[in-house]
Amino acid sequence: MSIEVKNVTYTYMPKTPFERVALKNIDLCIEKNEFTAIAGHTGSGKSTLVQQLNGLLDPTEGEVLVDGVAIHGKSAQAAAARRKVGMVFQYPEHQLFEESIFADIAFGPRNLELAEADIEQRVKKAMEFVNLPYEDYKDRSPFQLSGGQMRRVAIAGVIALQPEYLILDEPTAGLDPRGRRDLLDKIRQLHRKEGIGVVLVSHNMDDVAELADRVVFMNQGKISVNAPPKQAFTETERLREAGLDLPQMTQLLRVLEEHGLSVKTDIFTIKEAIASVQEAIKEGKKC
Amino acid sequence: MEFIHIEDMSYVYHPEREDEYRALDHINLSVKKGEFVAILGTNGSGKSTLAKHLNALLLPTSGSCSIAGMDTKQQDELWKIRQEVGMVFQNPDNQIIAAVVEEDVAFGPENLGVPTEEIRQRVSDALKAVGMSKFRNFAPHLLSGGQKQRVAIAGALAMRTNCLVLDEPTAMLDPIGRQEVLSTVKKLHNEFGITVLYITHFMEEAVEADRIIVMEKGKICSQGTPLEIFTQVETMERLGLEVPLAAKMADSLRKKGISLPKGILTNEELAVELCRLK
Prior knowledge:
The complex is a heterodimer of chains A (287) and B (278).
Chain A: E1 2-12, E2 20-31, E3 35-39, H1 46-52, E4 61-66, E5 69-70, H2 76-83, E6 85-88, H3 101-111, H4 116-129, H5 134-137, H6 147-159, E7 165-169, H7 177-192, E8 197-201, H8 205-211, E9 214-219, E10 222-227, H9 229-232, H10 236-241, H11 248-258, H12 270-283
Parallel strand pairs in A: 3-8, 3-9, 6-7, 7-8
Antiparallel strand pairs in A: 1-2, 1-4, 4-5, 9-10
Helix pairs in contact in A: 3-4, 3-6, 4-6
Chain B: E1 2-13, E2 21-32, E3 36-41, H1 47-53, E4 62-67, E5 70-71, H2 78-84, E6 85-88, H3 101-111, H4 116-129, H5 145-157, E7 163-167, H6 175-192, E8 195-199, H7 203-206, E9 211-216, E10 219-224, H8 226-230, H9 233-238, H10 245-255, H11 267-276
Parallel strand pairs in B: 3-8, 3-9, 6-7, 7-8
Antiparallel strand pairs in B: 1-2, 1-4, 4-5, 9-10
Helix pairs in contact in B: 3-4, 3-5, 4-5, 5-6
């Protein structure tokens, strides 16, 4: 089970003076059982790439397959394949529009022409998932919530469509540290417990290092690195070219290493780092 | 010299309605001219509401807010107050209005009726100060996020503003963009003595400030130097905030019985103290 991007090129405004090639011959396989992160600076092509994954943009050349089915064109098969891929845009709370939280989350399922009981079931489940108690919140206006809560409503709206794959574009931008942590835990659960294939687009390398099984760096419309985080974050030069930073933990551990403490530098959690520092102290320092 | 003076200020959204909400609750705050203050707090703690009082976008429901000696409730001082305090918001695309960078920067002074020659000078100075001179004839939509934010800052400088209030200016930016904006703000503070109020969720940016103010539920719950604030690891975490990673690591190591001194904020400091251990 995977999304396959096969030799995709995408050109904005072709055959005009504004023609710009945003993606160049991209090959990428997103496995459903892997948590994939896509990182790159503004204008690197990462948003253009993810919009190919559910047919919001059609490639100028090449094709995209979801679980083996090409998603382009008007056939029922292609439409069904596109529907497997849910997308949460940047600042999804700006897209809330209904009078109640229930109505907003139900909008997608309703368009699938489901029975009312099914819709209610899906809304309930989606709200539970994002930690918004159903009875307390269903009739409230989404516009009276805090930023973090609004974002959770918006994500619930996509989850209620029960996608097989979920793409999230900078889901934690502008959230406070606790809101960010809560949301990342939820996304991790979606992947691990519900088995949804997750693609996280982010320039927060700390989020990427902590969550992803596979990291894809984009630079100038091409993939410059496609590897597990431990390996990806050793590609310091590629990282710099892509306009990205090392995760904060990696930066910290490298400073310790430079000072002569023999710590591991390919670990990303506080717990692992503490253990490594304790060990380094025990072993004796060269500083 | 005191630049911002806020006394017992409260702000209530939708007063006397069912959805009445007290966003600021009896705030007292004094900011000196030339100070760099970072404001931290969770979403909904009142940071942005506070920021909007500083150039009279919002007026206190009770109490007072004065800028360079002018009470923001004085309608006839409004334009002077807005010249004193420039605002930069989170989303650069919402605050750029012209089709060419230099026209965007010139928009403020044009509206003040500043003579053309002087506008040219101000625009040049402002673009130079944020390091964007060579982009003066660019279309803003072709710029990166960090560059757009610097144009927004230049727009405020062209008003000869003495104070910049930045409300999460880096939240939408990639790492390079964040670095560009932060170093521009630091430069303006150091070289031109601009007073800065900087709202952020990035603790490593707040470390750069002279003073940190922490907000919770519409009140200022704590303030002090970065060192004073970020050594209170548990308090910050209880508030739903974080401390810089090196401070967090030092705290965790101490709990494991490693005797590190207080006051570690940077990676460098942590490394040096770890090396010093016997």
